[in-house]
Amino acid sequence: MKFEQPAGQNPIDKGTVIGRATPRIDGPLKTSGLATYAYEQWDLPAKPAYAWVLGAAIAKGRIASIDTARAKSAPGVLKVLTAADTKLPGKGSRNTAKLLADGEVEHYHQAVAIVVAESFEQARHAAALIDARYERTDGQFDLAAGKGSAQPDQGTNDSKFGDFDAAFGKAPVQVDVTYTTPDESHAMMEPHATIAAWQGDALTLWTSNQMINWGKQDLAKTLAIPPEKVRLISPYIGGGFGGKLFLRADAIAASLASKALGGRPVKVSLQRPLIMNNATHRPATIQRLRLGADRKGKLVAIGHEAWSGDLPSGEADAAVAQTKLLYAGANRMTQTRLAVLNLPESNAMRAPGEASGMMALEAAMDELAEKLGMDPVQLRIVNDTQVNPEKPEQAFSQRSLVKCLQEGAQRFGWNDRPKTPASRRDGQWLVGYGVASAFRNNMNQKSSARVRLGTDGKVTVETDMTDIGTGSYTIIAQTAAEMLGLPLDRVVVKLGDSSFPVSAGSGGQWGANSSTSGVYAACEKLRGTIAQRLGLDPANIDFADGQVRSGNQSFALADAAKGGEIVVEDGMEWGEISKKYQQSTFGAHFAEVAVDAYTGEVRVRRMLAVCAAGRILNPQTARSQVIGAMTMGVGAALMEELAVDKRFGLFINHDLAGYEVPVHADIPHQEVVFLDEVDDKVSPMKAKGVGELGICGSAAAIANAVYNATGVRVREYPITLDKHL
Ligand code: MOS
C-alpha cells in the first residue's frame, strides 16, 4: 500500500482499542523474567561456549604483534582469534570503524582479539594473558582543537536564506552565544549481546539489535556470505537509544567464534567497561547561535553553526536540524562542520540532531527573551510559523507548538515564575522556572507485516519490527485488534525475527507510526480476503466484537478461516505526500528546579511536557516513552558526560559508576499531556513519533530554570555544581 493522499475515515478512527491506555502485553513476561533476551536463550542446539572481546590499548596506530600462546594454553580455552586468523573480509556499510581491527587500530578498545572458552571466567582469564604490542601514532582527540580544520558534512546540508549577516548586524537586539555539549553514552541497561550458531553455511544470531534488516545485511556483508544465510532473532531488547542501530563487535565475535568451533553456539556479552569505547556514543558538539530580533521579539536573523567530530568517513551530529524549521525569520543560515577525531565511532543517540541542537537553540532563545525583557513563552509564540521557513510553499502537516506552550504555561502555573533571576528563595534553595519548545521531526520508513487468521479466530502478526522497551508489541496488537474488530487478547504479536517481513525497525521515533501503518496495510488486505471468503461486499463491511457484518448478514470472524488459516502480507510505503508536507512533532517543556545556594547542587522539582504528535496510539506506553526521554533530558542537562582523555584518546569514565545517569531519586514528579489531535497527512494511523520528542528541549528547560534560579548562565553542559560556583 502506498500512502499518497490525506487519510480519510478508516477503521482506526473507531478508537475501540487504539488510543486507549493499555498496559504492555509483554509486561508480565518481562517482570516475571520469562522474556528471553539475547543472552538468555536456553534452548540452543548445543551447550554454548563463551567469548571475551579484547579491546585495543591505544587509540590510533598499528598492532605490532599479538602473542596468544599463553592464552591458548590457559584452562578451558578453545580458540583465540585475531583478524589474521579469521580473514574477516570487511565491514558493513553502516559501521565507520571495523568491528575487529585488522593490523591498523582505528580507536581505543576496538576489538583486536576474541578468546573463546568453556566458561566466561576462563575466557576472561585467558584474555589477560594475551601479549599485544602496539605502535602508537598521534591522533586528534579534542573537538575544540580540531574545529578549525572541520569540513562540511555530507549528511546535513548547509542552508542560507535572505541576508543573515546584514540582518543580524542591524538587529536592535542580538544574542551571540556558544554552547557546548559533551560526548555521551547510550548507557543502556542490557549490554550489546549475541549468541551465534552455525548450521552448515547458515548462521543464526540471537542478538540485541534495533534494526533487524540492517543488521542482517551488514553481517552478511562483513562475513561475505549471502544475506539469505543469516537469521537475526531479537524479540526483546533491554534498551538501545540508538546504540543498537548498527551491528557491533558482539555480533561479529560470536559469529566468528562459533564458526571456528564448527558451529557450536557462542555467547558474547560486551563487558561493561569495554562498551563506552568499543561501541558508539553521541558526539560532543560546539554550537554557535546568533539570534537577532526587533524590539517586539520578532526574529529577523537566525544563525546556527554546529561542530562535532567522528572518525574518518563518519558523520556529524545534525544539531542544526530544528533550527531550519522551528521559528519564522526571513534571514537565516545553518552550517554543520565535521572534524576528524580519533575517538571511538560516534553515532545517533536518542533523537540525534535535535536532542543536542535544542540544548543550544532553546537556551539561546531564553537569553534573547531576557535581553528583550519578554516572557520566554511569548517570545516563542510570536515567532511561530505554519510553513517551513526554508521552503514557504511547504506547510507543516500539522503544527500545534503555540497550543502546547499555552496549555503548558497554564497547567504549570508559569505566571507565578520568578520574573527576575535569583529572586526566589526557599530556605537554602534558590528556586527557578524554565521553559523550552520541543521539536523533533517525524520520519516514516517503509514497513511490512504478515497477518494470519487462524481457524480458532485468533490473529497473529509477524514483522521484524523491534520492541526496545517502547511498547511496539502493544501498539501493533492494538492496531490489528482495531482493524479486525477483536479484543486485544485475540491477537498474537511476533517481532524481531529476520524471517518475518521487513519493517521500519526502531530508530528516529519512526517506529510507532511506520510499523503500525505496515500492520494496517496487511490487515486491510486480510479484511479483503475475509470478505471474499465469506462472499461479502468489501466496501460495505464492518468488523466488530469478533464478528464480520455486512447488511443483515453476520459471521464469526473464525468462519472465514474454516477452510484453513488465511495468511496475507502487505506493507506501507510513502509517496509524494511525505515531501508535500513537512512532518514534525511539537511540544513544550516546563521545569522547576532548586539550586543549593551554598553548594550549587541542582534538584529538579517538577517537570511538565505538553506534546502534539498526531494520534497517540496508546497514551500509557507513549507517556512512558516521554517520561523516559525527559529523564534523559535531566541527564543531559545536569550529569551525563564522557570524559575525554585528550592525551591518549579514550573515554575515561567507562562504566555506570563513573558515567552518571539520573536515578529515581533525581527525578521528581513528571507530568505528560498529549494534545488531542490526529494528523491525517502522515499515515492512515494519523500518528507521529513521540518517543524522542520528550528529550528535545527538556534539557534546555532545566538549564533555563537553573539560570532563573541562580542568575548564572552556564553554557557548557552538563551543568555540574562546580560550573556556577
Ligand atoms: Mo534512535 S537515536 O535513531 O535509535
From TrEMBL:
<dbReference type="InterPro" id="IPR049648">
    <property type="entry name" value="PaoC-like"/>
</dbReference>
<dbReference type="Pfam" id="PF02738">
    <property type="entry name" value="MoCoBD_1"/>
</dbReference>
<dbReference type="GO" id="GO:0005506">
    <property type="term" value="F:iron ion binding"/>
</dbReference>
<dbReference type="InterPro" id="IPR036856">
    <property type="entry name" value="Ald_Oxase/Xan_DH_a/b_sf"/>
</dbReference>
<dbReference type="GO" id="GO:0004854">
    <property type="term" value="F:xanthine dehydrogenase activity"/>
</dbReference>
<feature type="domain" description="Aldehyde oxidase/xanthine dehydrogenase a/b hammerhead">
    <location>
        <begin position="32"/>
        <end position="138"/>
    </location>
</feature>
<dbReference type="InterPro" id="IPR046867">
    <property type="entry name" value="AldOxase/xan_DH_MoCoBD2"/>
</dbReference>
<keyword id="KW-0560">Oxidoreductase</keyword>
<dbReference type="InterPro" id="IPR008274">
    <property type="entry name" value="AldOxase/xan_DH_MoCoBD1"/>
</dbReference>
<feature type="region of interest" description="Disordered">
    <location>
        <begin position="1"/>
        <end position="24"/>
    </location>
</feature>
<dbReference type="InterPro" id="IPR037165">
    <property type="entry name" value="AldOxase/xan_DH_Mopterin-bd_sf"/>
</dbReference>
<protein>
    <submittedName>
        <fullName>Xanthine dehydrogenase YagR molybdenum-binding subunit</fullName>
        <ecNumber>1.17.1.4</ecNumber>
    </submittedName>
</protein>
<dbReference type="InterPro" id="IPR016208">
    <property type="entry name" value="Ald_Oxase/xanthine_DH-like"/>
</dbReference>
<dbReference type="Pfam" id="PF20256">
    <property type="entry name" value="MoCoBD_2"/>
</dbReference>
<dbReference type="InterPro" id="IPR000674">
    <property type="entry name" value="Ald_Oxase/Xan_DH_a/b"/>
</dbReference>
<dbReference type="Pfam" id="PF01315">
    <property type="entry name" value="Ald_Xan_dh_C"/>
</dbReference>
